[in-house]
Each structure stands twice: as structure tokens, then as C-alpha cells.
Amino acid sequence: MKVNVQLDNNRLPDKYTRHAAEEFKQNDFPIVSFPFSIEDVPADTKEIAFALTDLDSIPVCGFEWIHWLVAGLDGKDVVVPENASQENPLHWTQGNNSSAGHIYNLGDQPISHKYMGPKPPSGVHDYTLTVYALDQKLNFKDGFWYNELLHNIEGHIIERVKVDLPVEN
């Protein structure tokens, strides 16, 4: 399985990060999700899920920050278009990002279960897009949690691909 994200000078383009124009932000967070493709999906894949997280956030806030969580993609090659998180043209299910928890307390606002773009506090952070090809369909509703995804896919991962997406403050 191959995951392709178009980078700009080896960085996630500014449009999808803290450097986005104000009209592409909500609560000062970028909300326009970046486009990418998933190719060469294993033939026996029933569903694709993915997570965009920030392990470099651990020294800053004490945990891995969740920026985007999706399940329910058909188990085939797919092109995820720009702004798919807001527009949902692929009819997927989106889980909670870290703003849904008590740190930001944004609760059930739309941003809490859609793409919440990177805003590294300093330097360069590597945001990790992890794509899972699964041998079963999940039965999630919008607003599921990352730990629910990880528990439910255990033993059902056909293939996992990780792509680091550097973002500079």
C-alpha cells in the first residue's frame, strides 16, 4: 500500500497548517484538510481507516495529539480530495480529535470531530498519517475515539503505512 501526500519543500503546505489564511480556520485552527491518495490497497481489504497524530506534542502537552481520525473508507484505492473532512465526499465516519477532550473543551463543536490542522508551538513537528487496511468493516458513528479505533482494529490489520508530514512553526 502506498500513501502519497504532496509536500512543499518537504513540508505539509502552509494552507493546511497554522499558516493558513484566516478564512480557512475555525477557533484559530486550520480546518481545510490536505489531499492525498492511497494506492495498491491489498485485494482483501474491507475497510480503510486513518489517523493524523502528533507524537512531538508529548513533551508539550503530555500526550499524542490527535488531529484527524477517519474510518469507513471503502477498501480500495482512493483519492482523498482537499477539504474532504469538511465536505465528506467519500461518506466516511470521523472520530474525535484532541479538541473534543478537556484540554480545549470545544465539546461537540464541528471542529472537534473533523480535521484540526497542525499548529506546532516551535520548531518542526512531524505529524504522522497512519493508514490501516482492515480485513473487516467497522461500525462506528461520528465522534468515536482513537482508543476505540485501536481496540477494534487489533488483529484485523492487513497492512499499515505511516507517513511523516513535517510542519514548521
UniProtKB/TrEMBL annotation:
It comes from the Bacteria. Keywords: Protein kinase inhibitor. One of its GO terms (molecular function) is protein kinase inhibitor activity. It holds the Pfam family PBP. InterPro entries: PEBP (IPR008914), YbhB_YbcL/LppC-like (IPR005247). NCBIfam families: YbhB/YbcL family Raf kinase inhibitor-like protein (TIGR00481). This is YbhB/YbcL family Raf kinase inhibitor-like protein. It comes from Apilactobacillus waqarii.
